[in-house]
Amino acid sequence: SDIGSQRDRVVTEEEWLQKWEMGNIGFHKDQGHPLFQKYLDVLLNGRSGLRIFFPLCGKAVEMKWLADMGHSVVGVEVSEQALKEFFADHSLPYCEQPVPEISGAKKLQSTSGNISLYCCSIYDLSSSILGKFDGVWDRGALVAVNPRDRQRYVSLMITLMEKNSSYLLVTVSYDPNKHKGPPFYVPESEIKSLFG
Ligand code: SAH
Fold first, then answer.
1. Residue 56: CB within 6 Å of ligand 1?
2. Is the predicted pLDDT of residue 16 greater than 70, yes or no?
3. Are 62 and 109 in contact (CB under 8 A)?
4. CB 108 within 8 A of CB 145
5. Whose C-alpha in 9, 65, 67, 192 is 20 to 30 A from the C-alpha of 45?
6. Is 6 part of a structural domain of the chain?
7. How many A from CA of 59 to the centre of ligand 1?
C-alpha cells in the first residue's frame, strides 16, 4: 500500500473554512452514514447515558440522533459556520461560551445541555478539558487529518478514551495515486500501527 504521493499533502484550516463558506461540503450526509446504523449496537453495547465524542464533527446528523437517544455528545470542529448550521438544521436552541483554557475557542452548547460543540482545532484539546468518552464516532475525521498529523491525532484520541470505550472508524479504500484527498487513504496496516 503506497501512500507516497499523499504523505506530504496538507489541507490547512483556512482551506476547510473556505469549503464551508463556499458550500463545498460534499462530505456532509443529510441522511447520516449507513455504517452508523449498521454498527450502532457495537458503539452502544447495550449501555445508556454514554458520553460520545465526534472529532472533526462538521454538522454530522448522527450527533442529533445520539442526543435524542439520551446520550451526551461532544464534538470539535474548526468551522463555526458548520456548528451554527448544525443547530439551525435541527432547530436546536444553543448558547455560546468561551473556553477559558483555549484562547479564541468557543463552546456552543444546546440549551438542553446534552450537545456541546467546541469551535477550535482538535489539537488544542485534551482530556483535562474534555474528560473521557465511552464511545467515538470517527467518520471523515482520521481520513481528513493531514497524513503528517496522524500519530498526534491518534495519540490524543487514545487519551480521550475511557477503559471500556468503543471506537467506530470509517475509512475509504481507493488508489491514493489517483486522488490527492481528502479523504486520505489510510491503509489498514497503518491503522493497526497507529492504534496499537
Ligand atoms: N465528521 C463530519 C465532517 C467530516 S469533514 C461528517 O461526518 O460529516 C472534516 C471536518 O473537519 C471539516 O468540517 C473540517 O472543517 C474539520 N476540521 C479539519 N481540521 C480540523 C481540526 N484540526 N480540528 C477540528 N476540525 C477540523
1. yes
2. yes
3. no
4. no
5. 192
6. no
7. 9
| CATH number of the domain residue 101 falls in | 3.40.50.150
Question: Above 60 in pLDDT, residue 152?
Answer: yes
Counted domains in the chain: 1
- For residue 70, pLDDT beyond 80: yes
Asked whether residue 65 is marked as a ligand-binding residue, the answer is no
Q: Is 28 in the pocket of ligand 1 (CB under 6 A)?
A: yes
Looking up cell 473556553 gives 99
Q: Which of 187, 188, 58 is nearest to 122 (CA)?
A: 58
Q: What's the CA-to-centroid distance between 57 and ligand 1, angstroms? A: 5
| 3-state SS, residue 32 | coil
Residue 15 among known ligand-binding residues: no
Read off the C-alpha cell for 75.
Answer: 464534538
Bridge partners, 77 (sequence order): 119
* Ligand 1 mean position, distance from CA 139 (Å): 9
Domain range spanning residue 122? 31-41+48-195
Q: Give a yes or no: residue 132 inside a domain.
A: yes
Give the atom of ligand 1 at the shortest distance from the alpha carbon of 54: 1
Model confidence over 78-128: pLDDT tens digits? Answer: 999 999 999 999 999 999 999 999 999 999 999 999 999 999 999 999 999
